[in-house]
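ok so I'm stuck.
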Amino acid sequence: MALAERSLADRAARAPLLLRMGLVAVAVVLLFSVLTAWVLETAFRDNAADAAETRLEAQVLLLMGMVEVLAEDDVRVPQMLPESRLQLPGGGLYARILGPAGDTVWRSPSAVATELNDWTREEYFAYSMTVRWQLDGESVPLVFQMLEDRSAFDEQVESYRYSLWQGLLTMTLSLIVALILALWFWGLRPLRRVRAELDALRHGDRVHLEGPYPREIGALTGSINDLIDFERERLVRQQNALADLAHSLKTPIASLRLNLEGHAPDHEDLRRQVDRLQAMVQHQLNQAQRVGPVPFQTPEPLAPVIERTCRALRRLAEHQGVSLETDLAEGCALRMDSGAMLELLGNLLDNAVRHARSRVRITTHCDGRETVLTVDDDGPGIDPADRERVLERGQRADTREDVHGQAAGQGLGLSIIHTLVSDHGGQLEIERAPELGGARLRLVFAPVGD
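replied:
not stuck anymore, here's the structure
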């Protein structure tokens, strides 16, 4: 039973929207038509009944004006009555007068040949009026009664009902057709527009659902646009992560090569380099899957990661004739996982070593207002006009060779640094190093207490 009910519910849910809306419209119109017919017929019936009672009252008053009372049981009425039906046997309109004892003292010719023992039957309209007639100083009560056959009334109501239902049926069918056409051509037009724009999206002719749409569909298209942006951002992040991974691995691989080419390879250093490579790969995989702000992180001390990165790059730096200097304040930390911090510092120092002539200096500073990481080098620096451009992916201040005569890279280092800093709520500032004269990369983060 439950399976059958679920199957029925599934079929109902898959029913076309036009069919569902059309059925609702038909049900509403039919209900409205039935209620309208009932109200109009009831009102017509009541009005016709009131009119019949008013006519009977008028006939009684006319009859009273013609009556001559000679005694309690002697009532004279002229032969010419006010209504011709009163004079015709079975004419459909009947009258009588009752005396004080309740006996009939007069009846109309129409009632003489007609058995009217019960003057309160449902097939008649009845009206009765009691009048106290003054006779020789005495008050004589007389009851004037008037009956009218309901057959004419019933025929009138039946004729009205037929005309009413005929008109309502025509109007209802026309209204249903008009509603279905309106639903198809106007009500469902926004959905057809959504479908057309989705087709355009699939073929690359659009980037979003633009509308305009009704409020209800606008909420749906807004959610679709958010989903499109989410998927597009995730795709871009995955593509960037692959490029970033390739770029990030260049420096550790170069360091490994130098170590292996040495006469006495440092196995401990090799192990650290492999660990760093593994951490970078894992971090880039995490980056490729993450879209949006970085989740809450516990503070990670800066000094140990900086020293670890310097040890990994020292052999490469010495090979290029560059010395690494550090001036690290105690207690400085960032809300950043170790993999991201390793990648950030690896790109910072790799960028500085490749462009420095002989010196690179790493400085940290932290107080209650901000945490600052500064990397200075004595290379050619970055021209102020290029400082915003070099933060874009694939853009470099110099696309030919670095100061050591090596081919320029792909222009990803600074963009990776900028992305990591932005993802963790920091700011990247490019300046001229005041003492060394080259470039200064100044990374500013909120204090870990915030």
